[in-house]
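User: Can you help me understand a structure? I only have the sequence.
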Amino acid sequence: MKSRVRAVAHRGDPYLHRENTLPAVEAALAAGADAVEVDVQLTKDGVPVLLHDRTLERLWNDPRPIARVTADQLEEVATPGLRIATLAEALAAVAAVEGRQLLIDLDDAVPVAAAWQVVRDLGLASRVAFCGPVTAMLVVRELAPEAEISLTWNRLQLPKARLLDELRPSYLNPPFGLVDERLVAAVHEEGMGLATWTVDLRRTMRKMLGLGIDSLTSNRVSLLRRTIDQYSG
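Assistant: Let's start by predicting it. Here is the structure, written out as tokens:
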């Protein structure tokens, strides 16, 4: 049974599988994540793929920027059983599990239109949410008036009323170091949920739950799932 606090798997289950790959997404779903957060970048030919960095170097040992590599050329960095996944493949994996959600993290506005087109083409608008900074979320809201938005926020002060009216975010999404009772209360008073990231220690998870947050993102989704269920139970 889904608890009141959303358990979000950060880039899948990176403790078991390479982050932002299909095995990581599938493992997170198997571990009971309510939502799986993935990062999206565009290939040279405009295909949205799962990747956090602007280059392939850290994860795939290739110095090329993703923007200079076509989707077909990504096969060059694949290893047996592991390759860079497309957003469409991640959406299909999440859609196959009832009640789960894909949280698409967009660091800037560049991939927004292509990502939204993939979501629309697959008819999965109801199974996704978007998170990221103001610039990217403004484009999301323009293209997708009904989309769920989690606004990434790095300030103690809440966004201005005009921005909240324009974006209509479901969640405010600050790092956990900024979260205290005052912020949780202020966010709830504005009619939003409070989401926070990236929480990997059990004691920090329990502290956030005690403060009344609504969504927790972690690299350790199995521990997060157990902690939320124990706290809620």
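Now, to help you interpret it: The first strand starts at residue 6 and ends at 10. Residues 221-232 form the longest helix (12 residues). Let me know which part you'd like to focus on.
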